Amino acid sequence: MKCKTLLIACALSTAAFSFSAMASSNSICDSTLARVCTDTQTQRSEMNARTLKLKNEIAAEANRNAAPRIDEMKKQISKFHFIKRAIQSYKIRNQEIMKSAKTRIGGIESVVTNPENIAKLKGYMQLAIDQSNFDAATKANFKAIESTVMIGNFGDFLERTNLDDDVMSQLLGNACGSDGMVENAFATTISGQRYVLICPGFLISMSQNASDKDRFSSILQAIAHEMGHHIDNSKVGNDLYKPYLSCLSTNYADKFNKSADDKKLCEKNPKDVDGCNLKVATTHAGELIADQWGIKVTAIHAKQENLSFGETEDMLVNSWAKLCGTGDEGIHPTGDFRIGTLMRVNPAIAGALACNNSAIVKPACTLDGAVNL
Ligand SMILES: [Zn+2]
User: Fold this and answer.
1) Of 39, 78, 192, 349, whose CB count within 10 A is highest?
2) Other CB atoms closer than 10 Å to residue 148's CB: what's the count?
3) Can you give the pTM of this predicted structure?
């Protein structure tokens, strides 16, 4: 979402982190999790260490710059007003963290602030909707919604949410963390504006030395996933996504953990296995739907840009490696399921990689319903 400041350029120029860069004998087609997760393990832990180091540097600099300001503040506020002092100290420190973070990571957001990239991505999303089997009115509605989504950067987000001035918002509202370094991406609505933010902490874990083209490919899945949340079932209802949800509950319900609510319902009606399965799949639906939109967009990109098999595989490894080993808290399916099943067994992905699908037994679940590969 930004471009390179001097500090970032220096900090990252010593090593190129591209999860896909390592030579591997595994392939997404035949050994999906080995290729995406096992083979990228070293690179991922090195990147985590690097991100932590940067985060600590930001914190140290912020503490240094906050100290004289806090001393000054203490001259103004009596020590008997200790709560007021504590709040002011917190506020000053967070302002310094944000200032330091903005300077250091100012460069990495270019991939999502570049208007050409945004136009391309939004075009893919419109195409993905056009190519779906939804009825004309739904397509028109989805396209209208997506055309209004703003893909922002951290600085813009802070301004919109007024974080510089509102301590409570800083504490509660900022899913990127006050320094922006939480490895997160999310969809939200701020004062009526539909919004997608990929946190700097997420972008910084991408290869900074990769070409702009490769970085764009690597971020497509994440942004399209977040854009997909603006038209997921929580926004437009379960009915439109019924073919997808039925396929998931029939074929993959055992892959999902039950939330507390799901458990309650399933225990109350032990004989209604189908009802229980549908409930569990529906609780995960928002994420499963968002993933499908992301998958559609990456497949469209591979086709439109005539990516080679190798380039497509690299794009997918870079797109999904962040999810390796993530668990299912009752809402997000496990990384293993999202990578090994949702992505690998998707017809458009299997087609883009020209996979041999003879070992795949269960159908693929797509937004159009079940498809046998
Ligand atoms: Zn999501």
Assistant:
1) 349
2) 11
3) 0.88
